[in-house]
Amino acid sequence: MNIQKHSENVHSICHQWCIERQTIAFVPTMGNLHAGHLKLVEKAQQLADKIVVSIFVNPLQFGENEDYSVYPRTIDEDREKLADHVVDLLFVPEVHDIYPNGPSESTIVEVPTLSGILCGASRPRHFSGVATVVNKFFNIIQPNIAVFGKKDFQQLMIIKRMVNDLNMPLTIVGEETIREQDGLATSSRNAYLTTDERERAPLLFHSLSKAKQRILSGDKQFTDIEDAMKLTLNQQKLTTEYFSIRNATDLIVADVNTKDFVVLAAVYLGSTRLIDNLSFSLK
After folding, report:
1. pLDDT of the chain along its 283 residues, tens only?
2. Distance between CA atoms of 117 and 7, rounded to whole angstroms?
3. What is the spatial distance between Cα 244 and Cα 264, in angstroms, rounded to a whole number?
4. Which residues are known to be catalytic?
């Protein structure tokens, strides 16, 4: 596995692959890799000749009171995990390489409307930070395919919109969420949970599943479903930021004519923020 820190070297390597007509699949991560990340790498291996993985904790997508300084950085362990997979290039840039003038002086990519709802309502800088850094990586690597997890469904939608709006010649692939045996979605932030919080965390997935079943059974009282699930979660000390039933194609609030659904939620367990979603269609 070739490990590079500088964007010029990465661009040169990937450009040579393009000259050789090798297809490139890209998996962006912030490190602290788990089974969900490795599933993205495995998906990328099915789709392209060359696999590029990035590890970069992006300061631009963290708010003032969020966990950038303490976000787990486990590069040695991450390298070991990737060594068991066929990864051709690991890109581990420093902040000054990605933001030569500093994050606060960087040109920003903003995806309107989608970035301001759901998670974006409470994290107003977050998705502009995501869109900006992903855009930079796309320019450096110039992949044919990029693979993202569906656990952050809103992020996936924003990246797809950005690629379409900016006429980028690549395909965005969404990969299904990897879950623990009790349903909890794999996440780097699960490590922050106490033993008691970890026992209660699967209630998030269970509530999404109940909402899905009510909709599939014909219940169209979406506000009532949302309220009932929020009440259940809050009673179990999962403080609900939002629980929302949306159209899976554009994240507009679902109505009686919606056929493709996504149910999304964000909760706090203690100081740990967890997100999850379930998407499905009516026959």
Report:
1. 999 999 999 999 999 999 999 999 999 999 999 999 999 999 999 999 999 999 999 999 998 777 788 888 999 999 999 988 989 999 999 999 999 999 999 999 999 999 999 999 999 989 999 999 999 999 999 999 999 999 999 999 999 999 999 999 999 999 999 999 999 999 988 989 999 999 999 999 999 999 999 999 999 999 999 999 999 999 999 999 999 999 999 999 999 999 999 999 999 999 999 999 999 999 7
2. 33
3. 5
4. 37
Residue with tokens 């068991």, as numbered in its chain: 84
Q: What architecture is domain 2-175?
A: 3-Layer(aba) Sandwich (3.40)
Taking the domain 188-277, which CATH number applies? 3.30.1300.10
Query: What is the chain's Cα-based Rg?
Result: 19
- Where are the chain's structural domains? 2-175, 188-277
Buried b (16+ CB within 10 A) or exposed e, 24-56: bbbbbbbbbbbebbbbbbebbbeebebbbbbbb
| CB of 3 closer than 8 Å to CB of 79 | yes
Indicate the length of the chain as a whole number: 283
E-strand ranges in 34-165 read: 50-55, 89-91, 145-149
